[in-house]
Specification:
The structure is a homotetramer of 267-residue chains. Chain A is of the alpha/beta class and 267 residues long. Chain A has ten helices and eleven strands. In chain A, the strands form three sheets. A six-stranded parallel beta sheet of chain A has the order 5-4-3-6-7-9, with helices on both faces. The first copy, chain A, has a two-stranded antiparallel sheet with strand order 1-2. In chain A, strands 10-11 form a two-stranded parallel sheet. Chains in contact: A-B, A-C, B-D, C-D. Chains A and B meet through strand 7, strand 8, helix 8 and strand 9 of A and strand 7, strand 8, helix 7 and strand 9 of B.
């Protein structure tokens, strides 16, 4: 995703040199990720082969959500055996981050979300503790880490507002990392960050796109873990919608009712 | 420097459990680094043995300046052979960062400083290009990197104001790192940073104290390089002062006249 | 353990400059690890503080066995989430290696041991498969890895004979690592290794002492995982002996009856 | 080079699914590297684009020799600023390894070769010391490293005989690495290696193919360094031959007369 060629995947049609999606002669922009459609045209550069036994609903989650969260913990924060990890925001991406952190051997995974349903689900996905806010997480993290704080904090809220950074950074131990995964408002130019203690504690703020994953190797890696029952993907699908119900899907998303909702063409 | 025990080095007297510096019964705070004195009392935890052939003026630079800059490039940015590195602020710490980046094999090292004298010195220390400001560095970096921008940008200005971060981050390539080494105002709580492109480009903002160095291994490492003529340390000393001239030393520091000034008790 | 100072820990008495263990005026050699005694004299350099709630039988395992095996997987092989790991030899060290690999997120852990009891225990410690020999493991590893072979193979047999290396290396995938942890005969100067495919496949043979661990940070790390029930240490103790039974302990060790036997002074 | 797809590059014709080189209907095997020809047919998977200003004689060296040696030091040994590196065998690959180690900031680079001409050239390529044999190198390395020995030893002799490994490993410091780059006889199944001290010193034996390089990023990286005069490539070409002189080229190779000989079609 970081190579210059890869950027073209974001182009209309996701093709190397030609826009492949048209409607009445106009080029359609498809975000490069998907089109809520049964068929699509994609560049061979944008395609990852999966095995036939992988259910398509599970595979659909790996286009962004699962790899983005799992990779934030595994590839970007590089959670190690015995670490303390905090995941802020436990929707689809955060639920995958919780699983990634736990799978990498984190001693504690603290899930932070204001929605009780999402906290409950996070505990099912492997979180050891939950808190309703960053503020509520601080004394908890202090206590269970014996004052050492978190090795890694993964930011996966719905929107990455700049004033979340400093409170989240206060959860991070000396030498630890804050992973900025969620999408920030494009028009936002300021963040709260106390640079003095940040530098003096040798902390890291790590931007993260698509979980810093290599799709060609990491999608198959995650799907092999799924096959062995080591990562819960079906369980991340809260609701299935017919295409006609798509607007209800967006409402549920906004209302915090879903870990993940999918359009299921078999319904 | 990151261990909990290490923090005690900052205590008055730099001793494990006792304040060792007193004046008329009052404990003196010595900043843990030095005291402009010929003799001092230090904890064995705060002492690094050096060989007898190392001149003390050279050794004095390694208490902070040299390791902080050199380590910012070598340990924290992990500059690799062929990289493009930018060093913003070319006083003592920056001059050491320039040398570290060049020594690690950087293809280009762009020195940024408003003071012509410091840019000239940076070129002597191994910078391949120089610019008077971050703004002036941008088109230069774009051109010489063929649009790929810098693998690493090291921030070593006199003060790390928060509004320097975003312009400096715009010099950083996808997947690259901005190292925040300089001291920021303690009362500063905001920085300029466009989180959206920062995350989408998988960039890193890396706080850095004492060059992320291990004093026990890195001070001897640097001094061995000095002995082989691979790092210029004597050349970093612009002016030598007698103790009585210390206030002139501070004035010269503020006026940008020195790469490094030292109190020389032999004068 | 790799520093020059650390080597002194192996000296008689394990003290910095003085032999502390004597008998009738003769210096006693204590191997630096332990003395089957209730009290000992140790250098402060050789001591790691543990918390009061840690049972001493559990702590005793961490002097060598647990850290050596766990660290072989976690620190030296750097097993990653989704990897395939093989552990050859499933006594105490191997049982800890199995747990380390599983804890680090290995998709499969294949335990290899000729003794059925040890294979059974390995499965309890988290191995997903077991085989009676390296030869029997090969088709198994080929099959479950879809022909890609193992990311990491950890060698923890009772003795590391040189003719084990090539067969074990054939279990290792391109770019993978074979960790040589077990003690080899000092008089052995040859090993079997086909250098041509070894180099052409960019494989690694990694010597490993004490699990490439840092005792000061890794012993507390493992004991915190123990406290959370994430690593099984009590379960590694097969038999407890009174000091008078020490020779039976050695017999059981040789007969392959123990994962770990300990001298328990409370019996 | 390590991916499964990449292996196909070694196939006849270096094409994805078809043999492209024929003579009178027979498929020709072209070793995947080159054909001493002015034109060739290659799979797009086996092609790396270079800029027009790069001379073809320089580019020709990067198909194997330069990247193999340079990458052995930079990518595989990961030579760091201040390290001590030894390069055993200073033909084309070794000369590139010497340059890689120096470029990465090695404090000392000791070139080992029985041929005086090659030792002289190695010193021109940046070696700081030279020795005629591994045995002669040992006291030299001991002395200049103050007894700490070498961080990295790169093995680039004409043939990697198994009895070279132990003497070379004795040059390696605790925690250091021996990189096995040269091609070993396929029929050789034994190497000399004292496993006991190897494991007890946490050393590494690292197989290395094509310098553990990524051709798509590392060939351009090296050529950019060439453009800046940071790596000497023209200087590695000792003799240029016309195609008719190819057998003399092989004789000179065997007689140790060349760092690198090339067929130059412009002669």
């Amino acid at each position: 995703m970081l190579c210059d060629l890869g950027m073209n995947i974001q182009n209309p049609g996701a093709a190397r040199d030609l826009a492949r999606h048209h409607y009445n002669g106009d080029v359609l922009y498809t975000f490069g990720l998907g089109t809520f459609s049964e068929y699509s045209i994609a560049s061979e550069l944008a395609v990852v082969k999966i095995e036939e036994d992988i259910p398509l609903d599970v595979a659909a989650l790996c286009g962004c959500c699962v790899l983005t969260g799992w990779g934030s913990s595994v590839n970007r924060a590089r959670v190690k055996v015995g670490d303390v990890a905090v995941v802020v925001g436990c929707g689809g991406v955060g639920s995958a981050a919780v699983q990634g952190a736990r799978m990498a051997g984190a001693r504690y995974v603290i899930a932070v979300d204001p929605v009780p349903f999402k906290r409950e689900k996070a505990l099912e996905f492997g979180a050891t503790h939950a808190a309703g806010s960053i503020e509520a997480a601080l004394p908890l993290v202090q206590q269970i880490s014996w004052g050492e704080l978190a090795d890694a904090v993964i930011m996966t809220p719905s929107t990455l507002y700049g004033d979340l950074i400093q409170p989240a950074m206060e959860l991070v131990r000396k030498g630890g990392v804050l992973v900025a995964t969620a999408v920030a408002p494009i028009s936002q130019h300021d963040i709260k960050l106390d640079l003095f203690p940040f530098a003096m504690s040798n902390k890291t703020l790590a931007g993260c796109v698509y979980g810093t994953s290599n799709p060609r190797s990491d999608i198959p890696r995650v799907l092999k873990l799924y096959r062995e029952g080591r990562i819960k993907l079906k369980e991340m699908i809260t609701t299935r919608y017919r295409l006609e119900e798509i607007n209800r899907g967006y409402e549920d998303l906004i209302d915090g009712k879903n870990i993940r909702g999918i359009i299921d063409f078999s319904l």
